[in-house]
Amino acid sequence: MLDDLDHRARQVLVNNDRGNYTIPTAGLYPYQWNWDSAFAALGFSNFDVERAWTEIETLFAGQWPDGMVPHILFHEVNEGYFPGPDIWGGIGPVPSSGITQPPVAISFARRIAIRDSHRAESRLAALYPAMLGWHRWFMRWRLDAHGAVCVTHPWEGGRDNAPDWDRAMTKIPLESAGRYHRRDTAHVAAEMRPKREDYDRYLWLVNQGRELQWNQAQLRDENPFRVADPAMTFICLRAARDLLATGTELGLEIDGLAADVRRLQEGAESLWNESINSFDSRTAGDGFNDVESSAAFLCWYAGIDQREQLKRLRIALKQVPYPIASCDPDSQQFEALRYWRGPTWAFMNYLIGIGLEEFALEDEADILREATRSLISRSGFYEYYNPLTGQAAGGGSFAWTATVWLDWAGRYEEDK
Ligand code: DGY
Questions:
Q1: Which end of the chain is more exposed for a tag (fewer CB within 10 A), N or C?
Q2: Which has the closest alpha carbon to 391: 320, 334, 337, 326?
C-alpha cells in the first residue's frame, strides 16, 4: 500500500497531465512551462517512465529553429491566462512565448535515463541533438563577457520578482504597456504575486521582443534588461556537464562541449561577490546587485564547492523555521509571502539538496531535506511557502512540488 502522501503526489501529476504534457497547476498556469515540465517528467519517472520521456519529447517539439526552447508552449488556448500566444508572437513550430527558462530538462533527461535501464539509450540519443542545440543557443546569445549566463526577462530566469532584477527593472520605461487585464490575481491573492508596476515592465519587454520578431542580435543590443543570473548560470553549467557526459558515453557529437564547460565554470565563478560573501547577480553595465538570494546555493548543483557559500548556507538553514527563504530574511527586500521575495520553494530546495548530496555535505543536505519534507507533509503540494510559518502560498496541487516529494523529500526514511 502506497503511503498516503506518495499517492497524493502521484495524483497531482496525473491530474495535471494533459496527455503528452503536464501543466504546473490548473487555473494559474494552464500550459506547458519549460522547467516545470522537466520536473513533471522527473516525477513521472518514479512510476511511469514512458510518460516521463513523452513529457520531454513534447517540450523539445516546441524548439525554435535557432535552438531556443520556449518557456511556455501554448498547446491549447486558455482564456484564464495572460499574456497568451497572440501577445507573445512566438515564431516556433508550436505557439509559444519568446524567451526560454533554465535548462533543467537537459539534466533531468540524463537523470531519468539512469533510472530507466530499458529504452533510455535510444530515447536519450534521439533527444540529444535538440538538447545540444539548446545549449549552443545559450552559449551564442546569453553569455556576458565573463561567461556568466544572462536573462533578458525576469520570466526567463523563472524567479519573476526576485530582488536580483530590481535595478535592471528600473531601466524599463513604465509607460505604454497599454491596457491589459491580469489573470493571475484572479487565481492567487495579490500580495503573493508581483506588483502592477512589475507586470507593466514584464509586458513592455514582451512587446519589445514581439516587435523585433525575437531577433536575438537586435535584442542583445536593444533590450534594456540584461542580468547575469546565478541560477541560470549554475543550471546551464550543470546541463553542459551532463551533455558532455551523455555525449561521451553514447559516442555522440561533443565538439566544443569541454571548452563550454570551462567557459561556464569561469562565468559562474565570476559571480562571486566578495563584498557580500555570496554568489550574486550582475546587471549588465552596472555590476553586482548585492542581493543574497537562494539561487546562490545552487553552486553545488553546478559542481562548484564554495566554502564561504557553505558558511552562508549554514546560516540560511537556521535563519527561518522553514528554509531556504528565496531572499535573505534580514534584508529590506524580504517579504514572506511575495513570490520570489521571501517564500521557500520546494523545487529550489531539491536542486540545492541534490547538489549538496553529490558533494557529501550530508549534514546540510539532511536538514534541508527534512525541512522540505515537513513543509510538504504539513502544508501540501503548494507552489511556495511562507518561510516563517510554513503556511502554503501561491497555487495548489503543484506538479514540481509533487515531484520533489516523490523523488527526494518523501524518500527520506527509505534512503537513510
Ligand atoms: C507568470 O505568468 O506568472 C509566469 O511566471 C510567467 O512565466
A1: N
A2: 337
Concatenating the DSSP letter of every residue in 238-292 gives HHHHHHHHHHHHHT---TTHHHHHHHHHHHHHTTEETTTTEE--EETTTEE----
Give tens-digit pLDDT for 298-345: 999 999 999 999 999 999 999 999 999 999 999 999 999 999 999 999
Which of 33, 37, 69, 155 for mutating ligand 1's site (highest number of atoms within 8 Å of CB)?
A: 155
Neighbours of 123 (CB within 10 A): 21
The residue whose C-alpha atom lies closest to atom 7 belonging to ligand 1 is: 155
Q: Which residue has the cell 491549447?
A: 76
Contact (CB, 8 A) for 191 and 88: no
Per-residue pLDDT tens digits for 158-181: 999 999 999 999 999 887 667 789
Helix, coil or strand: residue 173: coil
What are the residues facing 392 on neighbouring strands? 385
Mean pLDDT over residues 234-250, rounded? 98
The answer to whether 160 is a known catalytic residue is yes
The answer, as to whether pTM is greater than 0.90, is yes
User: What backbone torsions phi and psi does residue 198 show, to the nearest 5 degrees?
Assistant: -65, -45
